[in-house]
Structures are given as C-alpha cells and as structure tokens.
Design goal:
The protein is of the alpha/beta class. It is built from ten helices and seven strands. It starts with a strand and ends with a helix. Strands 1-3-2-4-5-6-7 form a seven-stranded mixed beta sheet, with helices on both faces.
Length: about 260
C-alpha cells in the first residue's frame, strides 16, 4: 500500500528552478501528470515529481484502500518531500488539493498551487454542485465507489473530466487509470477532517480553477482563496481534469506565470 514516486528531470536547456511535486486527485494516480504537465515544467527548468498516494495505481484493487484516510495521504507527501531532499512547490489537484492544505497546516513548502481543489470546508459544496447540475454523473461516480471503474462509461467519464471539444483520445490513458477512491477519505472530506487553519504567511499560494468544472463550483475556489489569503484565478471554459483537457497548456502557462511572479 506504499506510495510511489515518478520523476522527470529538468531540461538542461534552461536554468534550474525549484522542484515541483504533483499530487493527484481522487479516483486516479500519479501517471495522470506524466504526458503534459511534467514535460512542460521540466522543459522550463523544474525537476518534476508525481506521487501515487497509498492504495492508488497498480495496487488500486486492494480492499484495504478503504481503510486509508487523509492522514495517510499527508504522510505520503511527507515521505515524497523527504525523498526529493529539498522543499518543493506542491501542486495538488482536486482531492490532492485538500491533501496539500492538510500538509501545510503543519509543514513548510516553497509554495502551493491548489488546482481545481476541494475547499477548506470539505466536499459538501462539490456534492451539491453535482447533485443539482449533473445528478447522473454524481450517481455514476457513487457506483464506481461500490462496483469499480467499469460502472462509469467512457462517455460519462469524458463529461465528468474534460470539455466537449477535447478529443476522446486525451482520456484513453486516464480511463485505464480510473479506480475507486477510499471510502474513509471521501467521508473525511465530506464530514469532518478539513483544514482548521490557513497556511503560514510566508507560503505563497495560488488557487486556480475553471468555470466549466462539473465537480467543484467556482464558489469553492473563492472560499479556498479567501481562507488562505491566496491568489485566485478562475479560467473560463476550463473543466475539472485540466491536465487532460484541450486547454491544458493555457492552464500550465498560468501556473508558470504565477511561479515566476510569486517565488
């Protein structure tokens, strides 16, 4: 059940910058970053790491996944940072954004990007957003929790994650990575195990999300930015799985611009 760490070294064509650690969201694993975001930032001088949280990836079918909670995922980030050997910039997507927020309650980092992230109050705003806007997708996602990834069709997965004009081939690998999420972790973010305090003043934070996200509403991004006194950017037309979408490079450029401006 241990975590796994992917690495892509920075290109030697550009000056070396701070390392990045990518933390994936629910229902997937580290390779979701490897084809677009990791090469993009490696080309711009960052050693790039992506962690597969415990119970995710090749080990996903183990029933013990459902015993894992946010504290286990935070411990995975602690181990990954130790393995990197210097404080990285954390980039957490969706549930991974919640893991980053829990991590920075007690630990330092160079900076953090909360990308399409759950807010400090937890998952209730996301649940209501889906129930009112995409109830069929919400039902199908709950079926995945009970019966595995085959409970959601490829067409519904595309609606859930990317925009209509994104080519289906962009989801081909992600479909293979799709897996159940820990019931314990889902219950924790829905009910009680949420960040209790904002990050330290010396940790720069960016909150970035899209207004076409069917999983998390814009109001949640605003809440997160207000809680952490962070920079906020809402990008028109961007869906939930920004690393798979047609607009991925635009989002990556916004993150890079923030890094250059803030760190």
């Amino acid at each position: 059940m241990a975590f796994e760490l992917l690495k892509l070294e920075a290109s030697d064509r550009t000056p070396k910058k701070a390392p990045l650690l990518f933390i994936h969201g629910s229902f997937c694993s580290a390779p979701i970053w490897r084809h677009r975001f990791m090469p993009f930032f490696a080309d711009h001088g960052h050693d790039c790491y992506a962690v597969s949280l415990s119970g995710h990836g090749p080990q996903a079918n183990e029933w013990t996944l459902h015993l894992l909670g946010l504290s286990d995922y935070v411990n995975d980030v602690i181990k990954a940072v130790d393995e990197i050997g210097e404080p990285p910039i954390l980039i957490g997507h969706s549930l991974g954004g919640m893991v980053v927020q829990k991590y920075i309650e007690k630990h330092d980092c160079r900076g953090a990007v909360l990308l399409s992230s759950l807010p400090p109050s937890g998952a209730m705003s996301s649940i209501m957003h889906m129930v009112t806007g995409s109830p069929d997708l919400y039902w199908s996602l709950n079926q995945v929790m009970m019966f595995g990834p085959d409970a959601m069709s490829f067409h519904m997965l595309k609606r859930l994650l990317v925009s209509d004009d994104t080519h289906p081939a962009s989801l081909a690998e992600a479909h293979g990575l799709f897996q159940p999420e820990s019931l314990r972790a889902i219950n924790e973010v829905a009910l009680f195990d949420v960040p209790r305090k904002r990050a330290k003043d010396d940790i720069p934070i960016a909150v970035i999300g899209g207004d076409a996200d069917v999983m998390i509403p814009v109001s949640a991004f605003k809440e997160t930015a207000k809680f952490h006194e962070a920079d906020l950017e809402i990008i028109p037309g961007v869906p939930h799985a920004v690393m798979l979408d047609k607009r991925w490079k635009m989002v990556a450029e916004r993150i890079r611009a923030w890094l250059l401006r803030s760190l």
